[in-house]
Amino acid sequence: MPFVTDDPNMLDDWLVVGPAGGSPRTTRLLGETLHLHTDVDGTPHARLGADTLTVQSRYGFLWVCPSGRPARPLFAFPEYAEPGRRIVDCGGLGVAVSGLRVIENFLDMAHFPFVHPDYLGKVPHTEVAKYNVDVDAATDEIWATDCRFWQPRASAAHDTGSEVFYKYRVMQPFSAMLYKSSSRPDALDAIGLFLQPVDDEHVIAHTLLAYFDDVSTDAELIAFQHTIFGQDKPILENHAFKRMPLEGRAETPTRGDTTSVTYRRWLRERGMRFGTVRVAA
């Protein structure tokens, strides 16, 4: 199939292509135009020209395996079906940069006070406390745990500052989750970031919330996420390198970048080529 890459990290995995259901439509994936439609019984279909692609409907989205030979099942997202959670699709937003850059930004707490002042951070609360990062041997997923950061307004339902506890999870090169303090002391809200790779330097970012929130309206929750994403977008799109340099010498990490360092090493070990760039010494 004439996709713009032969990277098995993309061709042999499940890639999001937009919300499930709806009218027949077209969308872009890996440089090609796909035709999507769903039968009255809910069965999804995806075509590239005359070819029928392997597709499934999960978590409110359609997922395509471009090669038809998925190397692994789609990741688990048990919070999606957990009783009491509100599921809110925040829509898809285009970003003109490699999806690897978007995931790395999602994992970065250090930029909160500078890019999201009065929302996710505020000077002088700039320190990133030590946290733990591991790669789960059973699932090959990255987990960052024991993360915490002081925030003046952590969500649409908060209007006062507090220390917020986070867990980050990277399931695929273009899919990640954030779990954070919720209104229930024994539970965490979940935010899924699922990136649709249009090509090496363009993605559509789909954000899904699985929240315990009986205060905010859907419109308020969506507006909050769009505000945060709108603050990130111009910075992401003005990187010196649109694609991700995986060599350690290209961009110098700090102590707060432990998750980013692990993510880049994880990508190198997978032989990731799509969305990357080699930087001369």
Automatic annotation (TrEMBL):
GO molecular-function term, one example from the UniProt record: dioxygenase activity
Cross-referenced PANTHER family: 3-KETOSTEROID-9-ALPHA-MONOOXYGENASE, OXYGENASE COMPONENT, IRON-SULFUR DOMAIN CONTAINING PROTEIN
Domain Vanillate O-demethylase oxygenase-like C-terminal catalytic, first and last residues per copy: 101-269
Organism of derivation: Acidovorax cavernicola
This protein's name: Aromatic ring-hydroxylating dioxygenase subunit alpha
Gene3D superfamilies: Naphthalene 1,2-dioxygenase Alpha Subunit, Chain A, domain 1
Top-rank lineage group of the source organism: Bacteria
Entry coiled-coil feature ranges: none
Keyword list, A-Z: Dioxygenase, Oxidoreductase
Pfam families xrefs: VanA_C (PF19112)
InterPro entries, sorted: Cholesterol_7-desaturase, VanA_C_cat
